[in-house]
């Protein structure tokens, strides 16, 4: 299934997703992106005393749309070169980089293989509960998850 070419509808949704993301409409980008085949990014959780580091490995050429962060949080770009949409504009980030990200949604396109870490202050150890604490899921994403489980 991985090596099958995109059909016309997938190509249309992919194009509309990238156009919407380019213009900053992440809700529309997500709506179209949920309709095409997705790449899986590996996610790891590293636990310490009163914190967790959530680490995502993003392959080169992958476009990702994040859930909305509820609060500012520490980020580390450990490896890679990536274009990021945040606070209404696109910028290029290169590892190594540490910064505090603002609340809200972000999108990114990995120009090279990338490792991105979020540093979260919590005693929680369940990744699903950690996600509930720190992010808000869109209605589109929740509906897609419900449909996926049926």
Walk me through what this model shows:
This protein has one domain: Jelly Rolls (Sandwich). Helix content is about 30%, strand content about 40%. It is built from four helices and eleven strands. Helix 1 runs antiparallel to helix 2 (about 25-35).
Short description, anyone?
The protein has 150 residues and is an alpha+beta fold.
Number of helices: 4
| Secondary structure category | alpha+beta
How big is the Rg?
16 Å
Secondary structure: helix percent: 25-40%
How far is it from the N-terminal to the C-terminal residue, by CA?
Answer: 21 Å
Domain module tally: 1
List the uncertain runs.
none
Q: Quick check: average pLDDT?
A: 86
- Total strands: 11
CATH topology-level fold name: Jelly Rolls
CATH superfamily: Jelly Rolls
> Main sheet, how many strands, which sense, barrel?
5 strands, antiparallel
| Largest sheet strand order | 1-2-10-5-8
CATH architecture: Sandwich
Q: What is the approximate shape?
A: globular
The proportion of residues in beta strands is: 35-45%
CATH hierarchy, class: Mainly Beta
Which descriptors would you attach to this protein?
150 residues, alpha+beta, Jelly Rolls, four-stranded antiparallel β-sheet, 4 helices
Topology:
Elements lengths: L7 H15 L3 H8 L8 E7 L2 E8 L4 E3 L2 E2 L3 E7 L1 E6 L2 E6 L2 E5 L5 E4 L3 E8 L5 H8 E2 L2 H11 L1
Antiparallel strand pairs: 1-2, 2-10, 3-9, 4-11, 5-8, 5-10, 6-7, 6-9
């Amino acid at each position: 299934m991985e090596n099958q070419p995109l059909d016309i509808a997938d190509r249309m949704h992919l194009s509309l997703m990238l156009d919407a993301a380019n213009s900053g409409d992440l809700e529309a980008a997500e709506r179209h992106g949920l309709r095409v085949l997705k790449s899986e990014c590996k996610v790891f959780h590293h636990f310490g005393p009163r914190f967790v580091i959530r680490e995502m490995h993003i392959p080169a050429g992958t476009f990702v749309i994040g859930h909305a962060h509820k609060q500012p949080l520490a980020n580390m770009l450990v490896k890679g070169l990536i274009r990021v949409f945040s606070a209404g504009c696109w910028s290029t980030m290169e590892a190594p980089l540490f910064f505090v990200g603002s609340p809200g949604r972000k999108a990114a396109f990995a120009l090279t293989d990338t490792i991105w870490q979020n540093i979260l202050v919590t005693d929680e150890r369940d990744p699903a509960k950690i996600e509930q604490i720190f992010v808000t899921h869109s209605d589109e994403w929740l509906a897609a998850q419900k449909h996926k489980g049926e």
